[in-house]
Amino acid sequence: MKPDQSSKLKPVSTRIKWSAYAAYIGTYAARDWGIWEELGLDVTVREGGPQVDTTAPVADGTDQFGITGGDQLLVARSKGRPVVAIAAIMQETPAGFVVHADSDIHSMKDFPGHRLCVIPGHNTEIQYRAVMARLGIDTDTIEEVVHFPELELFLARKVDIEPIYVNNQGTIVRAKGVASRTFIPSEYGVRSYGNVYFTTEKMIEEQPELVQRFTDGLLQGWKGAREQPERAMDSLFKYDRDLDRDLEFDKLRDTWPLVEEKHGRIGWMERERWVEISEALKAANLIRPDQDTDAAFDARFVTTHYDSANS
Predict the structure, then answer these.
(1) Which residue from 223, 245, 210 is spatially nearest to 29, judged by alpha carbons?
(2) Which residues pair with 66 in a beta bridge?
(3) Which of 59, 145, 217, 246 is deepest in the core (most CB within 10 A)?
(4) Residues 221-258: pLDDT tens digits?
(5) Cβ atoms of residues 288 and 76 within 8 Å
(6) Is the pTM of this model over 0.85?
(7) Which one-letter DSSP state was computed for residue 9?
(8) Are the beta carbons of 47 and 16 closer than 8 angstroms?
(9) Chain Cα centroid distance, residue 297
(10) What domains are defined for the chain?
(11) What is the DSSP letter of 159?
């Protein structure tokens, strides 16, 4: 549904998890190509960062929408933030852990006795703690080093294990020619959705039509980026001209396997996956044992988008 183009655009903002890069290319396409504007929305895209919990500004009304990990969203709800997932762009989390190829670490079971870089509150930390709990490993046996600059300590060999996104820092490590091994939490039975778009319970209750328009534009933007990656990359570079275009295309190529269109539909969410994520976090004492998983997501907006497109 497209509103009268003469009507005033509704200003809203969405907060990405990090600075601009290829993992958010569909968001920038939706903004730059006028897709949201055609749906009556003037969307401002705000950046996050390693120390920014995007659920906070959405919960307090600073932003209307945001991006986080499925695991992070459940942790935020455990803290009382009434945030609700409306679309999961990545069917798998990009979180991983990299070690140098000559390391004696050949599995996440080998983490004890080594130095691990930790970003507090980041979903790499959540994934790390969930995997260690599943493996029965006491994290006191691992030296945790809190550090934010990307890859600095790892490349200098001052930490043994670096948390990464496989489609960002993982891509950079490969581009630098650093021989390495990467461990993925799903290989140890811990999975999560990545790049989950969310809003608040209040927004869904009071303005569901606005949430639908935002979701429609978002999914159109991601579909467009999939079909026209060069044009979408041009849109991304309007927001950060200092990016390396070849590197960003490498990151984009590493992003698409995570997106993995479920049933041919970008953004799809299923209850079974949310329960799986929730149970892993409960087992690791990262969220409340009585937490209501069903309240954490609302799949109707993605479902309505595709139902309307096929009707």
Answers:
(1) 223
(2) 15, 198
(3) 217
(4) 999 999 999 999 999 999 888 999 999 999 999 999 99
(5) no
(6) yes
(7) P
(8) yes
(9) 15
(10) 10-91+193-310 (3.40.190.10), 95-188 (3.40.190.10)
(11) -
Residue 61: C-alpha distances to residues 16, 88, 182, 224 (Å): 15, 21, 38, 29
Distance between CA atoms of 279 and 282, rounded to whole angstroms?
5
DSSP state of 111: -
DSSP label at residue 165:
E
Q: How many CB atoms lie within 10 A of CB 263?
A: 7
Q: How big is the CA angle at 44 (ends 41 and 47), to the nearest 5 degrees?
A: 150
d(CA 273, CA 262): 12
Q: Tokens for 148?
A: 């934010």
Give the whole-angstrom CA distance, residue 67 versus residue 48: 9
- Please write the tens of the pLDDT for every residue from 35-55: 999 999 999 999 988 778 999
